[in-house]
Amino acid sequence: MYRTNKYPENWKCSFTIFIKKADGKGVRPISLGSCVCKVFETLVKNKLQYWVEKKKNIIPKSQSGFRKGQNTVDNLVNLTLHVEQSFNDIKDLLAASIIAPGKIVIEVKNVKIKTSGTVRFLGILFDYKLTLKSMNIIKFLRRTWWGADANTLLILYKSFVHYANFVYFPTNKQLVQKLERIQYAALRLSLGYRNSTPTNVILAESKMLTIEDRTIYLCHCHLYTILSNRNLIVNETIRSLKKK
What we know:
Number of helices: 9
Largest sheet: 2 strands, antiparallel
């Protein structure tokens, strides 16, 4: 196929099975294709990935998603380091003019950018003081799917709470205790335990660590990943901060 540039006609066809949804209001199509075609697609994907990343170096370092050995947490860590360093260096912008309006107006292609105290970046809410109090994890409890089994609820809980938690994890002990209480409440709901169930029993049955211990563990794992891959953009940020 590489030489002839011809694609088998059979690979263009697939067998589609329609499965009814649980509510009975629709169907879910499942397409079955050639296994050899899937293998060939993987070979082409690996070849293109090597050509783009290693040989031609086309993809910028700031692109972390969908790349081997990288994830979106790298960009979150990089942004946090830059913002925190700006606070430490006391960098700001002073604008003064007798004809200037009461507040600065920022426009991009004649579109006014509204001022906001928070900004969402890759699923994390950053506030203007980098306290990250907008990360209201208790909202997760209101969206729990009642009737789901314990394992499903635990997986759902982990996906909400453990994603990049070492980026926004507070240093204030009172806030840490609030997060711990929220975790215990979520685990009780997931496992169906009463409020009187001891916390050590809840952690043992759910095979979970405390939020603080889990955050430290995930942070160590991510640091190991950063140190083992010098091509990450986070490494450049860390080296530039060391020079200062």
